[in-house]
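User: Is it possible to get a 3D structure for a protein together with its bound compound? The compound here is magnesium ion. I've pasted both below.
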Amino acid sequence: MIKVKSSAELEIMRENAKILGRILDKVADKVQPGITTGALDKYAEELIHEAEGKPAFKNYRGFPSSLCTSLNEEIVHGIPGDRELKDGDLISLDIGIEKKGLFADFATTVPIGEVPEDDMNMVSVTDQALSKGIKKVVPGNRIGDISHAIGTFVREKGYYVVKEFVGHGIGRDMHEDPQIPNYGDPDTGERIKEGMVFCIEPMVKFDKNKVKVLDDGWTTVTAGRDPSAHFEGMVAATEDGPEVLVRGGL
Ligand code: MG
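Assistant: Yes, that's possible. Here is the predicted structure of the complex:
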């Protein structure tokens, strides 16, 4: 069942999302060749604590960090560590906070230095795909409309969405109903109502093969180890249409 948020809950989620947006901006500013993914995580965790929030990812089903750092062939759920960023890399930064009993969660992909044009095109398509999905967060539409908008756009541009992972509802839990796949049929799934909040997160790659989860149980990589991109936005359905609480973007 998809939970509808009260206006008081929505107000807190709005504030949390704003705080998280500022935090990820600061973390993204540190992204440069030579810094390790572990240092980014440490900084993100400090900022979350400074904001008097709790890192939502840390210890979530055993995840060890406050930030997911997914580099190049890593799509999502990359575990921060000693790996150093270098010119030409793509890094997806995914972050979550819990504050006042409510969650915020979003992600962005940051290109580092001179990224090959093919890779940048894919990143740009992923960013645009998120916008396509967000536009469908309108009361009266259905969840499949979001999925379909993302999936068809990405295919038209010649790329493939990740099918194994999905977007989700968010509120008093980080992952609430519904699941929001990045592909699907229009006019299917549950009806969107005012006060629902969704995390929409297109994950895009060059090939249609299944993704692989590494032995750490988290890090998800592309089959051919080609680069991938991931953007996530948190969006409320309102009577005036989609309200973006926070989103990643180029
Ligand atoms: Mg998410």
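Residues 105, 168, 199, 201, 232 surround magnesium ion (CB under 6 Å). The chain has a mean pLDDT of 98.
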